[in-house]
Amino acid sequence: MDQLQALRNIVGASQVLTGADAQPYAVDWRERYRGQARAVVRPGSTEEVAAIVHLCAKASIPIVPQGGNTGLCGGATPDDSRRAVILSLQRMNRIRGTDTDNDTMEVEAGCILQSVQQAARDAGRLFPLSLAAEGSCTIGGNLATNAGGTQVLRYGNMRELTLGLEVATAQGEIWYGLRALRKDNSGYDLRDLFIGSEGTLGVITAATLKLYPLPPARCTALLALDSIENVIVMLGRSRAGFGAALTGFELMSGYCLQQVARCFPQQHLPFDGASAKLPWYVLLELSDSESEAHARTRFESVVGAAIEAGCVKDAVIAESLAQSQALWHLRESIPLAEKESGKSIKHDISVPVSRLVEFVEGTNTALQNAFPGIRNVIFGHLGDGNLHYNVACGAGWTKNALLSHQDEVSTLVHDCVHAVGGSISAEHGIGQLKRDVLPRYKSAVEMALMRKIKQALDPQGIMNPGKVLKADEH
Amino acid sequence: MDQLQALRNIVGASQVLTGADAQPYAVDWRERYRGQARAVVRPGSTEEVAAIVHLCAKASIPIVPQGGNTGLCGGATPDDSRRAVILSLQRMNRIRGTDTDNDTMEVEAGCILQSVQQAARDAGRLFPLSLAAEGSCTIGGNLATNAGGTQVLRYGNMRELTLGLEVATAQGEIWYGLRALRKDNSGYDLRDLFIGSEGTLGVITAATLKLYPLPPARCTALLALDSIENVIVMLGRSRAGFGAALTGFELMSGYCLQQVARCFPQQHLPFDGASAKLPWYVLLELSDSESEAHARTRFESVVGAAIEAGCVKDAVIAESLAQSQALWHLRESIPLAEKESGKSIKHDISVPVSRLVEFVEGTNTALQNAFPGIRNVIFGHLGDGNLHYNVACGAGWTKNALLSHQDEVSTLVHDCVHAVGGSISAEHGIGQLKRDVLPRYKSAVEMALMRKIKQALDPQGIMNPGKVLKADEH
């Protein structure tokens, strides 16, 4: 029996796609990576996933797990050898159960993040993970890359939001690890090993997620600041003044907001005069467990003191939900404005907050020295030390000139990140994109530990080969 | 050169203890486990730790890492073969640095937990891990067992409080993984694999810990309730009403408080009449980011509504810090009263909060059926589903009769825990104590995954052999 027929026997003929039907799955959504797959297989249950992996293990067929295909590092795209099977989890999209007494929810890997958020809200709870692709990314992909987003400051990454996992191992066995416990110290932490491993150690088929109380009120403010030093001071004041109520602290450079205003004239910056021309803006979000009015009072107290101290130059506190949304919309429009403004070189980096000034100033200077006229596009989740430190064409630059220096620019930025103890991938993962530069920034000891684990759990090297680690490295 | 001399050459002669000097290290503090060690070695630096491990790896000498020796499962005690070297981290007790802008602190493994808490307070920050042994346990032990305690509800276990690690691998290499980043998705999560592995995969020598703002106010209340069902309802009300300000939700059975009152007459339960005779009491703690007065107002609102709804029968809200401390002292005195009252069989278990009623009622009944007259001693961190579900002599029982049934009692309790999806070790780890029962409650797939990881990282089996996994299992 040929292997395609064997796969059809597991999932049904209609769930094995080949040829033109398979091709859309073999290209990442930004069309940076174009692979070829032997077939796309779409299982409907954990048992089917395990049977597929078991079959592939016996036949040494590489498996590329895929969720919503919204990754930014090519982690879900096969190579072009046409050897791999793409294992699409999209049909496994059941919310298996919501437990409001325990504040947990059991979901399958193919659930769209937005559906999970909505199901939590329907149960009167919050599932806090929130990111740009939430309308199409899946929980499985969020787990594979330990997704971050805008609420990490308060609630943590996907890892901190997950209590248990169900996994098909690289041998096609099923680990039923769907615990719903906040304390469980009974052996090695397999859960967190699979989370963030980008499908290279096994296939996550379901997870038990943490839920939180829905905050009765949210309130947003936009601050205008004259230096990055003051941004850091304001982060300290916000943490001290708001405690756990601080759920967002997003940094935007003045240039980013000017681009948004230029590309989307219907959006406007709620500042005039000098305040509209400052170099930095911060979007602050407070989730209050009492009321809107209480949130505003706290904002007025903490932000007011910061203005008096000269740390913040100007501030707008949203008067209504609509105004809060308008302020968030400014932040969310930055990547779109960036796209409209032409090609940029993107970096998803994190640094210790205490070294952020040194990093931004040092890297800006080093870039100008090496590539005079180049332009910084800086925004991100500053509360977590996570910046999207992007680089775009400035005066005298063309798209082609910029692209011809892409590797040099990224190496310069990543070297600066590394020099201050930062990470070259804060929330997007490694995938194919950063696989070959990873050993430049991780010690030989760490790389060797990773390879030992890969070898131990996937000795045949069939699980998403060539992602995170080189295919021949295990 | 003999191996003891080689060890002396690494750490200096005075830091290698043998014979009677070594013996105190080879016995756990409760004197449940008595081992014998070839020597105790007390390195003063990470490089010395690595050199010791390297030497032991070459000579196949087992290593038992040890911190404050306060563990409850025999995880830091060698067997009696006199083959192992005890690697005491106590001299590595430097706080290497505190970064208030980044809210992190770098500490060595031998730091006493209380010193770390104090250093954080001195810097105007909170390090939230808090547990009974905090005056003598070390950060290294807290990491090895992923320690829990009373603040997990809000701040998480040791794992959630740790950003980076420095580890000597089982080959005696050093992994410098002391990252101070809240977002870092660049490869496998080695950090969380070493945390909770009880010294069986390598030796943790230092860690980067998360700090939090010091809450301006803390306020405590003691509630009296008439059923375990209402305890669960009150937990839901507290989560919804207090959000992230809820930092403690400790359950105590009426029997526990009566024992405290009996053993320590100077302590008194702040209830009279019927309220003093209810079956359950809950200690609630609120950490408020505004003021004491604000905390009290919130307590009055949420607890008042619960009394009106009949969910809570009586409540005392502490009027002062002294009264808050007195209420906490009641909770902290339970283990002492338990000890005063005679032998008990202890269980450190967790269950999903939604199945807690079923667990408590079912297990109480099953115990009475199997061992009529036996007495339950139930208290714990209910907000995390973590109970210390202990069993003591009741009417007609003697200490010896109880002890003769120890294994049967524990098996009954653990089987009940397992039946509701719980864990047989919530916060104490596995060590030697629960090693042999672990395979009863974990699937063959999970045990095999653990053994593969052990084999990959410690192929010689020299790291704390016989803890978590059987020594011959890897």
Mean pLDDT of chain A: 96
* Count of runs of 4 or more consecutive helical residues of chain A: 16
Task: Sketch the major β-sheet of chain A.
Answer: 8 strands, antiparallel
> Termini separation of chain A (Å)?
31 Å
Low-confidence region ranges of chain A = none
The greatest inter-chain interface is formed by: A-B, 91 and 91 residues
Assembly state (oligomeric): homodimer
Question: What fraction, in percent, of the residue positions of chain A are helical?
Answer: 25-40%
Instruction: Supply Rg of chain A.
Output: 23 Å
> How many extended strands of chain A?
19
The helix/strand class of chain A is alpha+beta
User: What gross morphology of chain A would you assign?
Assistant: globular
Binned strand content of chain A: 15-25%
Summarize the SSE layout with pairings.
Two copies of one chain form a homodimer.
Chain A: H1 3-11, E1 16-17, E2 39-41, H2 46-59, E3 63-66, E4 85-88, E5 95-99, E6 104-108, H3 113-122, E7 125-126, H4 139-144, H5 152-155, E8 162-169, E9 174-177, H6 190-194, E10 202-210, E11 212-213, E12 217-225, H7 228-242, E13 246-253, H8 254-263, E14 280-288, H9 292-308, E15 314-317, H10 321-332, H11 334-340, E16 344-345, E17 348-350, H12 356-370, E18 375-381, E19 386-392, H13 399-404, H14 406-419, H15 438-441, H16 444-457
Parallel strand pairs in A: 2-4, 3-4
Antiparallel strand pairs in A: 1-2, 5-6, 6-10, 7-11, 8-9, 8-10, 12-14, 12-15, 13-14, 13-18, 16-19, 17-19, 18-19
Helix pairs in contact in A: 1-2, 7-9, 8-11, 12-14
